[in-house]
Amino acid sequence: MKTYSAIRCKKGICRNYAHALIQEEPLLIRVDGKPYSVVMRTPGDEIPHAAGFCLGEGLVDKRNDFAALGFCEDRDPNVVDVRLKKERREKIPEILDRRGFISQTSCGICGKELVADLVSQIAPVDKDVRLPAKLCYDHLEQIEAYQPLHRKTTSAHAAVIYDANFQTLAVAEDVGRHIALDKAVGQLVWQHRLDKATTAALSSRVSYEMVQKTARAKIPVILAVSRPTQMALALAGPLGITIACFDRRDGLFVFTHPQRLV
Q1: What is the pTM of this model?
Q2: How does pLDDT run across 154-197, given as a tens digit for each residue?
Q3: Which of 28, 84, 143, 212 has the most CB atoms in a 10 Å sphere around its CB?
């Protein structure tokens, strides 16, 4: 994070102002020695980021699917090497060939085709949980407490993952909302604690990619500060994901699978 000089004008008065700006740098994720994806992200948490990314894309189902995960040989923090176990590679040849790389193939594909493709690849989340709606609202209202980077730059998103008792399991911030979620999920993948995750609270809107990643992580509830997209709801329904969004004036909007909120 760097500080840049700007001019701040307020109520007709303009003054010099030092403003902190969030960093954004490319991260190359290599799988078994070959480039797989380049993503723009806020530097930090590269290993959990890669772990969460691999889970979201279907490259792995659990930590034990990794043979190794770390930086490249010259310790470049912008390059992560993923090595998969042989038995895992044999299960996912199409994904390794990028034919199944859903998150970057939306161009030229209609919404219905994309949703149908994702639904066919991801098992529905059937976790039977019951969460008090008031606690869901309260935790969304307090999500800024988990956003120190956002308070300094006003340009970072956060993902907070809770267990069934709303105990915090993982927190991450990033310039990209989906990358913040990857980083938080990846922490739990690496710690063998993903099975405890019940709720993902997001400081952003809910896109279909967020639903895809949450469903792959078997997290049944998404709480978000902003509204979902139409495609996100089309995907959340068949995948068994509850989506509820925060509104300071009107309370909590529950869009899908409301039975989990009481």
Answers
A1: 0.87
A2: 889 999 999 999 999 999 999 999 999 999 999 999 999 999 99
A3: 212
Q: CATH 3.40.140.10 occupies which residues in the chain?
A: 133-260
- Is residue 143 within 8 A of residue 225, CB to CB? The reply is yes
Q: Is 253 helix (H, G, I), strand (E, B) or coil?
A: strand
pLDDT tens-place string over residues 200-226: 999 999 999 999 999 999 999 999 999
Burial class (CB in 10 A: 0-12, 13-18, 19+), 182: buried
Q: Return the pLDDT at 249.
A: 77
Tokens at 77, concatenated = 């923090």
Residues of the chain with CATH 3.10.20.10: 25-121
Residue 134: C-alpha distances to residues 103, 121, 128, 138, 261 (Å) = 33, 34, 19, 6, 9
- Report, as residue numbers or ranges, the catalytic residues: 107
- Burial class of 128 by CB neighbour count within 10 A (0 to 12, 13 to 18, 19+): exposed
Q: How far apart are CA 87 and CA 214, in angstroms?
A: 25
**Which amino acid, residue 1?**
M
Cα separation of 111 and 132, whole Å?
Answer: 33
CATH topology of domain 133-260: Cytidine Deaminase; domain 2 (3.40.140)
CATH of 25-121, one of 3.40.50.2300, 3.10.20.10, 3.40.50.970, 3.60.21.10: 3.10.20.10
pLDDT digits (tens, 9 = 90+) for 67-107: 999 997 777 788 999 999 999 999 999 888 864 444 443 33
